[in-house]
Write a structure and sequence with these properties.
This protein has 209 residues and is mainly alpha-helical. The chain has 2 domains: 56 residues, no CATH class; 119 residues. The protein contains 7 helices and 2 strands, in the order βααβααααα. The chain has a two-stranded antiparallel ribbon. The longest helix has 28 residues.
Length: 209
């Protein structure tokens, strides 16, 4: 994660305000006048900096694996989750927001699996080429319809169908994630068997091992 700090403009505006007010009501023809103004301005700037410290954002830096195809797919996943997060913030329905949060979480885990297991590239690529765009398209439609002032039966019915398909979508995403871990589960099972046999061979395994 990369930390990005953005300073607030309030201290600058405050400093300018102090200078403006002072110049309107007090003279500036002696050196000590400027000294007083400098002290007041510095104090106002320091105080406003404490009150308005700005904001700090943490941005996830692009992951580079050395494989251009995988890097491009990971970047596509980042864009997709960012778009779904934007739609989640725009949509008003609290239950739909929760469903989108769950979908984003599973989507992120799917792409993290690709990062650790490049052999899953084809499955994740298919997921990114079809399932993600369709999901985002439906969420965009839901967001547009939800922003309308008045809703007829067609709009309401369509939104309800989208709400229902989100449940099915989430279950499908979970099954895909579980399938992606099949190779890793097999490798772990193999390691367990090897370790077990080694312990038995060395006489280190317990009676109930």
């Amino acid at each position: 994660m990369k930390e990005i700090r953005t300073k607030s403009v309030a201290p600058i505006y405050g400093l300018a305000g102090v200078w403006l007010v002072y110049c309107l009501f007090f003279p500036l023809y002696k050196l000590w006048h400027f000294a007083i103004l400098g002290i007041l301005g510095a104090g106002a700037y320091a105080l406003l900096t404490l009150i308005f410290p700005g904001k700090t954002e943490y941005v996830e830096e692009p992951v580079t694996t050395g494989n251009p195809d995988i890097d491009a797919l990971l970047a596509e996943g980042t864009r997709a989750t960012s778009e779904m997060a934007r739609l989640r913030d725009s949509i008003r329905n609290a239950e739909v927001k929760r469903k989108i949060d769950d979908i984003i979480k599973i989507t992120d885990q799917i792409f993290k699996d690709l990062l650790h297991d490049p052999a899953d590239y084809r499955q994740v690529k298919h997921f990114a080429d079809f399932y993600l765009p369709t999901t985002i398209k439906l969420l965009n439609a839901y967001d547009r319809m939800g922003s309308l002032g008045s809703m007829g039966s067609n709009i309401t019915g369509t939104m309800e169908r989208i709400e229902t398909i989100l449940d099915t979508t989430l279950e499908g995403y979970k099954k895909l994630l579980d399938a992606l871990y099949a190779n890793q589960a097999l490798d772990i099972e193999t390691d367990i068997v090897v370790l077990k046999n080694m312990l038995k061979k060395e006489g280190l395994a317990g009676k109930d091992f």
